[in-house]
Amino acid sequence: TDFLKGAPHRKHPGVTNLKTVRLPEELQKAALAIIHACRFIQMMWYCGFNVFSPDVDFQLLEAQITKKVLTELRKTTYRWYDEDLGVVYMAARLAGGYTAVKRALNEIKKRDPCFSPHSLLDFGSGLGTALWAGHSFWADTLKEMVCVDSSGAMNTIADRLLRGGSEEGEPVIEQVYFRQFLPVSPKMQFDLVVGAFSLSELGSQREREDVVHTLWRKTSSYLVLVENGTKEGHQILMDARNTLLQKQEKAAYDPRKPSVFAPCPHDSPCPKLAQLPLVPCNFPQAYIPLPLPGAPDRQTEKFSYLVLSRTASTTEEVNGGGPDWARLTAPVLRRPRHVHCQICCSSGDLKRVVVTAHRHGRDVYRCARSSEWGDQLPIIRPDDSASRSLD
């Protein structure tokens, strides 16, 4: 029972899912201001309407545009570099992107509460969701945030989001710097480095490997990578994982080796890649989208992520020498007096486990009933006869 550390079962140390995520109020207001300014002027011009005509039904037009945006663009990455289409991308993906990054960063906040980053680097920053998510956790300690995106138009939108939607307003978050290229100096490191939905936009495997090595050189504590929860997104992250764990640079400025912090409880090859049919390792997180006409009240973002740490002992310190922590990789099936769990174990195996109070103890059983897909679960006896390998 020591693993509970005095917490109730529903809030045990392995719970890393968030309640339904909401955008910060300042970010939402700024986004809506930008969208409305663009929608009622530029987008009406695109549709051939006279913006100032008294015959235009603004509400009907707004609903039609929003429905098309959310239908066509929600699940895609942006592949444009002008400000107008960047605003369309913002309407479709701001809330979902922010949610995925915040959920990934929550893993660090929950399991390493002593981590107090002073600097953050956001590669492929786009709308700046990583800096907003990081600021929501570490506003008191973050003093320098660098956003790197090759698109000047996206940097402009991200800057306007910080200024309430205008170009001249005071920034809500200070000490934010926008760049189109990564800092050149190999000695310049950041406590926290984030690359969200950016590796998938690079043209080749070689480009991705080079960028991953560069981002790792810039990392002094944690590197966080996030991609869409598709087969392609999961594969990109596993390639990045292999690049850093198996192809380490010979002349590294920082010799500390990487270790996997999350979601994998091991440094072995991903067991899901050995299964057929291939099912990506992804996780859901509920969120509230921008309040635009046609948008649902609540949505779920499905994403894949990878957190690598410079400190190999971090995982051991978090576990505290207690039970092995496994990752729930599928929805938990709750049945009378038992719970079906699919878990990725510290041994590198994927297993299905039937958890009962009699077999695993009351505390583990109640934790299992309270856990959700993506949480960690303490497994006291991972070699238990009630578990079955999925190999």
From TrEMBL:
GO MF annotations in UniProt = 4 iron, 4 sulfur cluster binding; metal ion binding; methyltransferase activity; structural constituent of ribosome
Keywords, alphabetical: 4Fe-4S, Iron, Iron-sulfur, Metal-binding, Mitochondrion, S-adenosyl-L-methionine, Transit peptide
Q: Which InterPro entries match?
A: Mt_RNA_Methyltransferase, Ribosomal_Rsm22-like, SAM-dependent_MTases_sf
Tell me where in or outside the cell this protein is found.
Mitochondrion matrix
Q: Does the keyword S-adenosyl-L-methionine apply?
A: yes
Keyword Cytoplasm tagged: no
Cellular component terms (Gene Ontology): mitochondrial small ribosomal subunit
Record GO biological process? ribosomal small subunit biogenesis; translation
SUBUNIT field: Associates with the mitochondrial ribosome (mitoribosome).
Q: Which family does it belong to?
A: Belongs to the methyltransferase superfamily. Rsm22 family.
What job does the chain carry out? Mitochondrial ribosome (mitoribosome) assembly factor. Binds at the interface of the head and body domains of the mitochondrial small ribosomal subunit (mt-SSU), occluding the mRNA channel and preventing compaction of the head domain towards the body. Probable inactive methyltransferase: retains the characteristic folding and ability to bind S-adenosyl-L-methionine, but it probably lost its methyltransferase activity.
Q: What is this protein called?
A: Ribosome assembly protein METTL17, mitochondrial
- Organism annotation: Esox lucius
Q: Give the encoding gene's name.
A: METTL17
